[in-house]
């Protein structure tokens, strides 16, 4: 192009239909948005009028592009676009999503691209989803270009990714608390790897699921082991410690830590702590403060728990 402005305006052609074919317009792989920003606008002018020349803006122009664009490959062909978006949005809201389809049949080609509203989510989602088995397929999820934002510390990224996975797995066990409502995807999420050791406190800030409904009851997972609960004295110490810690954020009405039975009978909720606060404000403060905190050598995962299930003594998280 003759100017930076013309090159950026040409990006508005991405996704338009031309003679029955959807046009793809992309920046080169070595495009550096930070350097480009010093030369001129990097986005199309808002005053462009494609309709004046008989063109209709395509859906791809809605935002599945940019320096934090993510390639998602290895998708099972039977997954719908809505299901794929639900999976991706478990890590944060999408700014754009483009599922590549066969031009003649309209069927999925098994790959697509997405961009998150929050760029900080990008590497976490890639680390968590890349290599995930879905049926007979294995997902490939990575940044679409080598350029873009500087890569954060990879150890920290993996830690955050594993913590997010733990939250999703716990939420899927608790009807009414799922951050996704991921119809048909629960078996895949249940197969995600467990939490990595060496997790750092506070790492979950900004990465908790967005669609939870606040309640007065919290479920704290990965707090204690079954062995720690067998000893009466140790159990009493844990109960006292939890009451003291949870009481910092509001009035604790009730606190339950299910214990294993000597007979070996399975007891629902063992390893979890259930805390009922006097109001949802206190519960929200506690959730924000405790999620990702270290307690007894473990890093805590906190979700809201349905009040009606707690009140009837149901700690199973099963339907």
From TrEMBL:
Q: What is this protein called?
A: Uncharacterized protein
């Amino acid at each position: 192009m003759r100017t930076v402005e013309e090159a950026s305006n040409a990006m508005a052609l991405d996704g338009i239909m031309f003679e029955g074919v959807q046009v793809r317009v992309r920046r080169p792989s070595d495009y550096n948005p930070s350097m480009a920003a010093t030369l001129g606008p990097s986005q199309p002018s808002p005053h462009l009028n494609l309709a004046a020349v008989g063109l209709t803006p395509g859906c791809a122009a809605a935002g599945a592009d940019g320096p934090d664009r993510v390639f998602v490959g290895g998708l099972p062909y039977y997954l719908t676009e809505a299901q794929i978006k639900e999976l991706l949005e478990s890590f944060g809201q999408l700014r754009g999503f483009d599922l590549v389809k066969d031009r003649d049949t309209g069927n999925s080609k098994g790959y697509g691209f997405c961009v998150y509203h929050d760029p900080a989510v990008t590497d976490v989602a890639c680390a968590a989803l890349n290599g995930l088995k879905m049926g007979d397929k294995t997902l490939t999820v990575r940044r679409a270009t080598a350029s873009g934002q500087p890569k954060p510390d990879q150890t920290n990224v993996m830690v955050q990714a594993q913590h997010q996975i733990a939250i999703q797995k716990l939420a899927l066990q608790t009807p009414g608390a799922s951050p996704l409502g991921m119809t048909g995807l629960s078996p895949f999420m249940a197969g995600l790897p467990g939490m990595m050791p060496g997790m750092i406190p506070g790492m979950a800030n900004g990465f908790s699921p967005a669609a939870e409904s606040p309640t007065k009851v919290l479920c704290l997972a990965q707090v204690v082991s079954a062995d720690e609960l067998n000893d009466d004295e140790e159990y009493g110490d844990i109960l006292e410690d939890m009451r003291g810690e949870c009481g910092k954020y509001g009035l604790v009405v009730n606190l339950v830590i299910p214990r294993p039975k000597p007979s070996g009978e399975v007891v629902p909720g063992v390893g979890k702590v259930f805390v009922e606060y006097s109001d949802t404000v206190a519960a929200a403060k506690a959730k924000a403060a405790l999620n990702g905190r270290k307690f007894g050598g473990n890093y805590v995962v906190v979700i809201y728990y349905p009040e009606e299930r707690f009140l009837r003594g149901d700690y199973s998280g099963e339907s």
